[in-house]
Amino acid sequence: MFSLNLQSAVPLVVQIVEGFRQLIDEGSLRAGSKAPSIRQFAHAHAVSVFTVVDAYDRLVAQGYFASRPHSGFFVKSRQVSTAEVPGHGPNFSFDSMWYLRRIFENRALRMKPGCGWMPSDWLFTEGVRRSLRSLAADNVDLGGYGEPKGYLPLRQMIRDLLAEQEIAVTSEQVLLTHGSSQAMDLVARRLVRPGDAVLVDDPGYPNLLFSLRFLGARLIGVPRTPAGYDLVALEKLIIEHQPKVFFTQPRLQSPTGSVAQLSHLHRVMQLADKHDFLVVENDIYADLDPEPRPSLASLDQLNRVIYISSFSKTISPNIRVGYLAANPDVLEDLAQLKMISGLTSSEFSERLAYGALVDGRWRKHIKGLRERLAKAHEVASAQLLKIGFELFSEPKAGIFLWARHPDMPNATELAYKAGEKDILLGPGALFSPDLGPSAWFRFNVAFCDDPAVFSFFETQLQGGG
Q1: 3-class SS string, the chain
Q2: Is 6 a domain residue?
Q3: Along the chain (465 residues), what's the average pLDDT of each consecutive run of 10 residues?
Q4: Does residue 177 sit within a domain?
């Protein structure tokens, strides 16, 4: 095999990737041979499982490894190197972890049609400022840790907001978290063990996919359709893999923007009951939906469903206040896990969010935000269609459009080229459970108002650099 230098300035992830690449390129590891399992490699080389997950993901994305459900990672047949592919540089590859970091570390890029947040001037900044002034005037005690489940008045407000969606809970069934990402991570750590089959949307939510890979889950992608799910494929996957849990985002899904029809929601719950698995519903864009739709949680009343949402998308992503709602037994386990991993969430942030929510202008802000997004969808859709893109669906709400162009088969390559032009794109590989190549892009309609974004694509279509 090869050894790692723990004292080297070269990151361990890079050492692992280069070590396997060298073995494969020189023929020491042949196509079809099995790679050590993630945990075997981590134990043998005294490195973290997360480091090996990251390295193996990169090797899959670069075409050196293939991931096979139930079996592990295998050396992939490489008939043509990336250096020999027209239009690729000698070091061209898609590093999904690097790209995810880039999204957050390069907010200074001038154009960001691939990002996942709202422009600053679209958020409820004035409401946050008023709440902050109120907290300062009230001389809030900052000496304690706060309640384990979170600030009680905010949990009570969430109880009432959920009641408006016909989800009946008590405030004791609500757990406040550090954004929806912590909520999903807590649920994943509570429910998933290494080797477990876990259903996820395909394409799906990158943060969740990375978290589940780190836990050693076998990710089973459920194909999304404009109407929700490929129900035939879903049932076959359930029968074949017997999953423990299905992580899904029925409403205004990221990255596709699709909304699951009521009949699809009913079918998901029927299958969950029949095959005895849990469902984790990520509903972080509920406030952006102008239609009063049912959710999986409203159909199930938190029997099999764990419901997750957040205020980060509509108040401010910096506040990082999310929540989950579940049946009492599961909720108590998750509250304990939250305490073990990080004590309490920030009561100051929770009070700040609460102050913004009780502001008399909150509902007006949400109404205006929905209208603004609808107009942005109209403009972005027209521009994409004009230059030949195919739209997966046209939700006319939420943040995202999922689109591809018949003459742009490699979204990843275009994403790197766009970065050189000060444009952050969202290539489809980032949202793939198996990190497979993709022609699809995720577009954030709120950031598609700069003509230079579409000029970039037009230039690429004309053969420009």
Answers
A1: CCCCCCCCCCCHHHHHHHHHHHHHHCCCCCCCCECCCHHHHHHHHCCCHHHHHHHHHHHHHCCCEEEECCCEEEECCCCCCHHHCCCCCCCCCCCHHHHHHHHHHCCCCCECCCCCCCCHHHCCHHHHHHHHHHHHHHCCCCCCCCCCCCCHHHHHHHHHHHHHCCCCCCHHHEEEECHHHHHHHHHHHHHCCCCCEEEEEECCCHHHHHHHHHCCCEEEEEEEECCEECHHHHHHHHHHHCCCEEEECCCCCCCCCCCCCHHHHHHHHHHHHHHCCEEEEECCCHHHCCCCCCCHHHHHCCCCEEEEEECCCCCCCCCCCEEEECCHHHHHHHHHHHHHHHCCCCHHHHHHHHHHHCCCCHHHHHHHHHHHHHHHHHHHHHHHHHCCCEECCCCCCCCEEEEECCCCCCHHHHHHHHHHCCECCEEHHHHCCCCCCCCEEEEEHHHCCCHHHHHHHHHHHCCCC
A2: no
A3: 84 87 86 88 86 82 76 73 36 48 54 89 88 79 74 94 94 93 93 93 91 89 97 97 97 96 98 97 95 95 96 83 94 90 81 88 92 97 96 95 94 83 88 86 94 92 75
A4: yes
